[in-house]
Amino acid sequence: MDVPCHGNDMNIVICGAGEVGRHAAEVLSAKSNSITIIDLDESKLAQLDEALDVRSMVGDGTHPSVLNDVGVAGCDLFVAATNVDSVNLLAASVAKRLGAEQTIARVHHSAYFERHSFDYGLHLGIDHLVCPENSTALDIASALRSPGALAVERFAQGRIEMQRLTVSDDSKAIGLPLMELKLPGQARLCAIERNGQAMLPEARSVLQQGDVVTLVGDAGDFSRVREVFNTAKVGRSSVIIIGGTAQSVWLCRALHSPFFSIRLFEPDADRAETLAEKLPWVTVLAADAVNSDALVEERVDQVDVFAALTEDDETNILVAARAKSMGARTAIAVLQRGTYLHLLEHVGIDKAFSPRVAAVTEIQRLIHQGTVRLLASLAEGVADVFEVHVSPKADAVIDKPLREVTFPARCIVAAIQRGRDEVFVPSADSHLEPGDTVVIIGPAQIQKDLRKAFG
Predict the structure, then answer these.
(1) Are 87 and 62 in contact (CB under 8 A)?
(2) CATH code for 136-141+235-360?
(3) Cβ atoms within 10 A of the Cβ of 380, count?
């Protein structure tokens, strides 16, 4: 069944009518897209047919005959969102081979998602892999850290850091024009805050004691960069995480910095030992924080952030509510289903995060990739973080040293991604190539100028 695509509307096929697939259909159908959903469970499809204006088909999304019947060869997007990773990988791979323009597979296991030893997406020809648990962990980290910082680190797969530092009274940077300030590695100073007012740096800007600076640089250089501006011991926020899930591991990695002290509770002793080896900067406690006095013993009343990340929604609600009642400053719960969201305000939980929402937000981000996209704001109305794709037609920026490229005024090229794995902070002599993706920090509302510069 071929579904026509009109104007900018997309023809989208979704395999899987579970939590992620259903929410994706709800969000994407609201944009006047044409949606077709495949699932083996006829009752799930019947519920969707009643609630949404979508087409449905009972069948196995890994079978070419089924995919041909729904017109996958002419679709703009194929999303494999069942609860089984191997099914999603196979379905997305087959859909791509049959002619789907863009394919996305939802995966749960880190072995499929991370590319350390094997790149499943590349090998199977899938455009993007989305992991709801990873996306949720990054959303939580973004709520606890600077969204701009996490946007850069997420783009750079953790190889590049962004931090805000207060300029101490003994800083070597005080009184020097920025043009004379030599930073270790290829670090960049992206923004300055003074007396509550943010500004973009200029070559003649001079730092003062008490200024707050935003810096970006290679992760390996950051301890040396930090010492230029502030030699004092960094204050730390205390975090307690309940549940040794993959989501918890990703959250620990996203919060790995001198700014967070993390304790992780996992009742299974073997799993706790594995986590302790995997996360040496985290204090892993082999204890059941839900059904014991462990929270009292670990002084949860003094903790800054309490996050319940077990696999069970009811447990997360109950333990987060208990921690909040005991004095935790901020209580967070992760909920797989939306059934209990209305209860949270009544039990004192500050924030709730949903893997299905995080996954669909990530899918929307991937399918709306234009030349220029706003990633985050460093300072509202003053400095924004942009992701820019270098078009082969961008003759004004390609194959020239960055020092010779005319960028919009007061822009900083913070990071470049080349291919799937190469990410670096460029120097003034670095060149841009077609297909590169660039992080640029600059004045708010300059998308038009960036689009013009990058073709």
Answers:
(1) yes
(2) 3.40.50.720
(3) 9
What angle (nearest 5°) sits at the alpha carbon of residue 209, between those of residues 206 and 214? Answer: 70
Tokens of 441: 């920090």
Question: For the chain, how big is the Rg over CA atoms in Å?
Answer: 24
Both tokens assigned to 133: 């648990």
Determine how many CB atoms are found less than 10 A away from the CB of residue 160. Answer: 27
Q: Which two tokens stand for residue 239?
A: 């975090």
Query: What residues are paired with 58 via a beta bridge?
Result: 39
Domain 369-454 CATH assignment equals 3.10.290.10: no
The CATH superfamily holding the domain 11-130 is: NAD(P)-binding Rossmann-like Domain (3.40.50.720)
What are the φ and ψ backbone dihedral angles of 213, each rounded to 5 degrees?
A: -110, 145
And the tokens for 86? 């191997």
Contact 162, 190 (CB under 8 A): yes
Tell me the domain boundaries of the chain. Answer: 11-130, 136-141+235-360, 369-454
DSSP element (H, E) containing 447: helix 447-454
Per DSSP, 203 falls in state T
What residues pair up with 191 in beta bridges, in sequence order?
A: 214
Q: How far is it, in rounded angstroms, from Cα 104 to Cα 13?
A: 11
Phi-psi region for residue 119, left (φ > 0), alpha (ψ -120 to 50) or beta? beta
The span from the CA of 410 to the CA of 127, in Å, is: 34
Q: Tell if the pTM clears 0.70, that is, is over it.
A: yes
Query: How far apart (Å, rounded) are the C-alpha atoms in residues 140 and 36?
Result: 32
Mean pLDDT in consecutive groups of 10 residues from the start of the chain, 455 residues: 49 91 86 88 88 90 94 92 94 95 92 84 91 89 74 69 83 88 83 86 89 82 80 81 93 87 95 95 91 87 94 91 92 83 77 87 75 78 83 84 86 84 85 88 82 78
What is the chain's percent helix, strand, coil content, to nearest 5? 35, 25, 40
Dihedral of CA atoms 216, 218, 220, 226 in degrees, nearest 10, equals: -20
Whether 405 contacts 428, CB under 8 Å = no
